Amino acid sequence: MSGVSVTKGAEDAAPAANDLVVLSNVNKHFGALHVLQDIDLTIARGEVVVVIGPSGSGKSTLCRTINRLETIDSGAISIDGKPLPEEGRELARLRADVGMVFQSFNLFAHKTVLENVMLGQLKVRKTDKKAAEDKARSLLDRVGVATQADKYPAQLSGGQQQRVAIARALAMDPKVILFDEPTSALDPEMINEVLDVMQQLARDGMTMVVVTHEMGFARSAANRVVFMADGKIVEEATPDQFFSNPRSDRAKDFLSKILHH
Ligand SMILES: Nc1ncnc2c1ncn2[C@@H]1O[C@H](COP(=O)(O)OP(=O)(O)OP(=O)(O)O)[C@@H](O)[C@H]1O
Ligand SMILES: [Mg+2]
Questions:
Q1: Separation of 16 CA from ligand 1 center, angstroms?
Q2: pLDDT score of 7 more than 70
Q3: Residues lining ligand 1, CB < 6 A?
Q4: The domain containing residue 70 runs over which residues?
Q5: Number of other CB atoms surrounding residue 150 within 10 Å
Q6: What is the domain count for the chain?
Q7: What does the pLDDT look like over 135-155, one tens digit per residue?
């Protein structure tokens, strides 16, 4: 799966059928800060892309633009051949198609684990209650927390909560799931149980964009590593190429800092 990148000004060209997420020449500012600079990125169906880079390089902002939690100033983003909708029902549907798992699990505290995984199905997908519950239970089983279904999020460990958050994203049958540092808030002993679930999802063919500092995960699960610095994509390569032979000084410097301590 090679990362086909879209050439600037090629918006009129027919997208490859395999392209799922396409960012073309995307720019975003926060006031004077040019946080995303001419971003061109195409993610193929079934591809797992790991995004790494120093703090403040724009990784979270990149993720947030893909499900329109942030607007962009110029350029274009499409999912499955369609431009991102701006508002209303179409936007709700987009959010369902583009799952997101955050560092802080963001579960509804006053709802049970089961209800958390049913809610989007009932409200957005209009699934009937029995089907939504069956699906929620089977997804909770898939991520290894079936026995926790009737508890509230605060009664679960961080690793369990994050697996519930993954089940909740999966319940919408998303086309792609964005993970923004999903293990950064976890105690070390819980990191692997979450990475294992993500690893399995990757094997099952889920399209995933993963911001992470877990280089072991990047090496074993990613089809491609995207390295960002100062709002730009500085380098894109297979994990093997990237880790053994980074081309840019920025990437070399970054890797020397994270790999040697
Ligand atoms: N809502 C906002 N308003 C103003 N500036 C913002 C906002 N969100 C992010 N920024 C700034 O944009 C830059 C990129 O932030 P972003 O969160 O995307 O970086 P990041 O690569 O995810 O960093 P980290 O590794 O620390 O999570 C940072 O300088 C940040 O301070
Ligand atoms: Mg971030």
A1: 32
A2: no
A3: 30, 33, 35, 53, 55-61
A4: 19-106+176-257
A5: 10
A6: 1
A7: 999 999 999 999 999 999 999
